Amino acid sequence: SVFYVICGLLLMRTWMHLPTYDNELRFYQSNTWNFQDSEIAHNNLGCTWLRLGWVQSGIDTWTIAQRINPEYDVTFYNVASHFMTNGRVSMNHGNYAQAVEFFKMAIEKLNAAINVPRCHFKEQWTKERDETLAYVQNPLIMVEAEKKRNEDLKTQLQVEFDKADPPRKVELDTSIKDCIARLVHCDQLLSQKPSDVPTLPA
């Protein structure tokens, strides 16, 4: 009899939560309500917020997870990854000063992730931190990396342009001109570099 009562309560609880299973956000919100002290539940909710485009809500939720468990490295890395992505986007658009600021914020969170007692991916995250730090310490390295990316992209677009039909050539011509403009910008920045600044390996 007690067994059936318990089973009935469990079934009722499952039935009450069925509506949450058809919506990822509601599902993970429900988890944080049921497990308010779970850093993992809050981390998962933060990832969901970010996938839906609610960036600040995601970061706020990861911050809650960090307060619950300051030794849970994943939430620190998630925030760092977000800042690194923004930094790369800014770099790709030629906004190097903005990229450096994003990378600085990423480094702070990467250090927090790396320094927890049980870091899941210490070697990999340390490498990412060091690469990001190199950009901050010498932004011209970032410019050279972007120049090489645009040179490679321009070459690929030119190959496609030579084989394309007329309508497609119009689209590709615009992209090629954009690459050229970015390369000119990179060259302008690199022309200002002192002679002792290290360059990227070939």
Can you give me a brief rundown of this structure?
By secondary structure, the protein is mostly helical.
Task: List strands and helices in order, with pairings.
Layout: H1 2-17, H2 24-34, H3 39-51, H4 55-68, H5 73-92, H6 96-114, H7 122-137, H8 139-163, H9 166-190
The helix-strand sequence is HHHHHHHHH
Unreliable stretches, pLDDT < 50, 5 or more residues? 1-11, 13-22, 194-202
What summary fits the major beta sheet?
none
Alpha-carbon Rg, integer = 24 Å
What percentage of amino acids are in beta strands? under 5%
Mean pLDDT: 82
Helix segment count? Answer: 9
Shape: globular
Helical residue percent band: over 70%
Number of β-strand runs: 0
Global structural class? mainly alpha
Distance between the amino and carboxyl termini: 76 Å
Task: Pick out its properties.
202 residues, mainly alpha, 79% helix, disordered N terminus, disordered C terminus
Q: How would you describe the overall organization of this protein?
A:
With 202 residues, the protein is an all-alpha fold. It has helices at residues 2-17, 24-34, 39-51, 55-68, 73-92, 96-114, 122-137, 139-163, 166-190. Helix 2 (24-34) runs antiparallel to helix 3 (39-51), helix 3 packs antiparallel against helix 4 and helix 4 runs antiparallel to helix 5 (73-92).
